[in-house]
Amino acid sequence: QVQLVESGGGLVQAGGSLRLSCAASGANFVINAMGWYRQAPGKQRELVARITSGRSTNYADSVKGRFTISKDNAKNTAYLQMNSLKPEDTAVYYCNVPGSGPYYGNNYWGQGTQVNVSS
Fold first, then answer.
1. Given this model, what pLDDT does residue 1 score?
2. Does residue 87 contact residue 22 with C-beta atoms inside 8 Å?
3. Buried/exposed code over 35-56 (b: 16+ C-beta within 10 A; e: otherwise)
4. The CA-based dihedral angle spanning residues 59, 61, 67, 69, taken in that order and rounded to the nearest 10 degrees
5. How far apart (Å, rounded) are the C-alpha atoms in residues 9 and 117?
6. DSSP secondary-structure letter at 17?
7. How many other β-carbons are positioned within 10 Å of the β-carbon of residue 92?
8. How far apart are CA 45 and CA 95, in angstroms?
9. Has residue 68 got a pLDDT over 90?
10. Cα dihedral sign for 50, 99, 90, 11?
11. In angstroms, what is the C-alpha Rg of the chain?
12. Which runs of consecutive H residues, i.e. helices, occur in the chain?
């Protein structure tokens, strides 16, 4: 079973920065992509950023130019550098790993890390 351990959340003022980390372990399949999602109170979980092992990335329009996702393939660790944070970025951020091979179609989630941005 995949374990995803997130860290780096916290409280920051608008305009500030945070860096989230997600370390994956225990996967018995190849991790081809890792992503970050977020869920604000009363809202649906949404994709923030995603990166493949080939370094292909995609971002939500709301974070383009402010957030950067990166991945250390050797460590199966993904990072989300969040700059110019806004109060509307406040949410629980979840790391995601989609399954591959016989586990294709499964999605694995971290426990979530809270990000609070004050105005």
1. 82
2. no
3. bbbbeeeeeeeeebbbbeeeee
4. 0
5. 10
6. -
7. 18
8. 12
9. yes
10. negative
11. 14
12. none
Give the SS3 label for residue 52: strand
Task: Kindly state the tokens that stand for 26.
Answer: 């225990």
Burial class (CB in 10 A: 0-12, 13-18, 19+), 24: buried
Name the one residue in this structure whose structure tokens are 């190849």: 30
Phi-psi region of 21 (alpha: psi -120 to 50; beta: other; left: phi over 0): beta
90 neighbors 36 (Cβ within 8 angstroms): no
**Rounded distance, CA 13 to CA 75, Å?**
31
Give the pLDDT confidence of 12-44 residue by residue, as tens digits: 999 999 999 999 999 989 999 999 999 999 999
Q: What is the mean pLDDT of residues 70-92?
A: 96
